């Protein structure tokens, strides 16, 4: 459809995985701002230190939506410690690359995960 | 995907068959350089002069007032920079608007770095230039005012005659009009617009070839060349002329003028049908630009909670080709300077979708587009964290 994006990006953009708010999510992270044209919100369900489920809602371009979609796929099944080490490069790799101007979308995905886990840990501290 | 609907005529139009047919001999058999003094050169020169005369006639100008260029961007550069250079001893102040095409805006910004003073006039919420601000901005050292006839993004048409009267009544400045979106579409007769000194136009916006455009330069206007070399185009634009392009542009412009009124009326009807349906059937949508004073084929919408590049690409997947003023379609983080100038918030400006109709557009195309937009906007809103309605 467009030479700018890989087929993987177009696939995830056209049929994104894990879209929508999650019932019973215990970790939510939101990064970006509307002014810049990107907002990513990630929902995680963490049980026994493992990410059992992940979903997203994103306002943004094709690359932002594809990055969100592939990130929710990649992050599922990871332990919290593994997720904290999750890097945007993994998103770029899984999408067979992103145009240079769109790399920031993969960074947003990484940040959204970290933010969600951060919020989760804060919640845990309060409980204890 | 079989269906493809092209609704991006403001970006470019297809080359009409009659123009192509007129051009073909000049790609092969008639190949002389118009500057050569033998018969080969004479044949090419004759074609070039016939094209110039035909364009001048349609525009209500004299043949010697028409310069050929490579297109709208070059014409704008030549007008702004050429007037600035030739008149800098008289003054160094230039006035333009905040919603000009980058071909004018970036040229003005470059001139600022070279010591010129530029005023960027604000526009109202519909995109019409503030005429009081214009009157107040004119000074003794103002040498040029450059205002577009119609905006390429939101389609708003400026009151060019009134702007011309204000300029000429209050200053000695030249008046340049970027009419790239207007020529061939609206009436830009220069025997009516007598206050206009320079006017840019581009063939591929009216079903002519790309790579050719023109600049009208009213007799007596002081203009410096920006491309130097040979003495083509009265020394104002060096380089061997694009004869085939000039012939194609002349043919396309001639036909556009014949068909203009009927085609404009047809497009206005289709455009208004589109606007009415979108505003009625898609919640949280708005029309950008003036409701009536807009190009016959232009409709520009903002849809809250979603981003324009996603919208364009989802529509493209359904076979419909439109465009957006979102930042994500460019390298910068800011959305369209035009949408910001008419007062849109950044997030609203990111969610714009421009539809520009043309000769081949049918009512069925419009209805298909509305249906596609309804489903794409809903899908993207379902995905958006900004949309609470789900």
CATH architecture of the largest domain in chain B: 3-Layer(aba) Sandwich
Low-confidence stretches of chain A: none
Radius of gyration of chain A: 14 Å
Q: What's the tally of helices of chain B?
A: 11
Counting DSSP H or I runs of 4 or more residues, the number of helices of chain A is 5
Mean pLDDT of chain B: 96
| CATH class assignment of the largest domain in chain B | Alpha Beta
Structural class estimated from helices and strands of chain A: alpha+beta
Query: What overall geometry of chain B do the principal axes of the alpha carbons give?
Result: globular
Number of β-strand runs of chain A: 3
Characteristics of this structure?
heterodimer; A: alpha+beta; Sufe protein. Chain: A; B: 390 residues; alpha/beta; Aspartate Aminotransferase, domain 1; Aspartate Aminotransferase, domain 2; seven-stranded mixed β-sheet; three-stranded antiparallel β-sheet; 11 helices; 14% strand; globular
How does the SSE layout of this entry go?
The complex is a heterodimer of chains A (128) and B (390).
Chain A lengths: L6 H8 L12 E7 L4 E10 L2 E10 L2 H14 L4 H5 L3 H7 L8 H25 L1
Antiparallel strand pairs in A: 1-2, 2-3
Chain B lengths: L4 E2 L10 H7 L15 H21 L6 E4 L2 H16 L5 E5 L4 H12 L3 E5 L9 H7 L4 E7 L11 H11 L3 E5 L19 E5 L10 E5 L25 H39 L3 E4 L9 E6 L4 H10 L2 E2 L15 H5 L4 H5 L1 E5 L6 H21 L7
Parallel strand pairs in B: 1-11, 3-4, 3-5, 5-6, 6-7
Antiparallel strand pairs in B: 2-8, 7-8, 9-10, 10-12
How do you describe this structure in short?
The complex is a heterodimer of chains A (128) and B (390). Chain A is an alpha+beta fold.
